[in-house]
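Lay summary. Proteins are chains of building blocks that fold into shapes, and those shapes determine what they do. In this project we predict the shape from the chain. Here is one chain we studied, written as its sequence of building blocks.
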Amino acid sequence: MKSKVTVDSEGTVTGNTYDKYGSTNPVVRRLMAKFHRDLDACYEIAAPTSILDIGCGEGVLTHEWAGRLGIGGRIVGTDLDDPLLHAQWEKRRAPNLEYRVMKGERLDFADNEFDTATAIEVLEHVTDPEMVLSEMSRCATRWLLVSVPREPLWQMTNLARGAYWSDLGNTPGHINHWSSRSFRRLLSRYGKVVELRHPFPWIMAVVQLGD
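And here is the predicted shape, written in a compact code that computers can read:
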């Protein structure tokens, strides 16, 4: 799949669409293998019983987690109203899985409705990441599991491969940028950061909610 910028019905730039999970590029495959190993390790720390997956995209991880949760574990994936996403959701169904069109800043769920809330490669795209994290924390009882590009490594990597020179290596749709330190500082406002991993070129964290 080629990269392209997508825009939702309200004019929100949803970012650069690239099938990183299905890529045949050997470099991308190695990077994604490491990303997935670290994500699995973070998943095991949280050991979720139910999941709210914000910005689930095509539902690749959401569908995988539905299988890991089993029939007794509920999972809901949310994203913007995009016909291309809807078509992918139809391909990835499970008895315990539901998809909803919804923005992370306005989650139509009850307080503490889920055990864990996740946002994998999402917060760099949203205009108000603090509001999204607040809503995730409201809807989850125990854990947040999140990942974002690690800066400035991400932009430097883009420049090194000759991408997005006119934007100094910034991927289209990335409007927020964090280093490992600044991301930890942000997440610490919502709970205790119990795990922080750095699969190149990302940051991945598990946050324990509560007092």
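What the prediction tells us: The helical segments are 26-46, 60-69, 83-91, 129-139, 153-160, 180-187.
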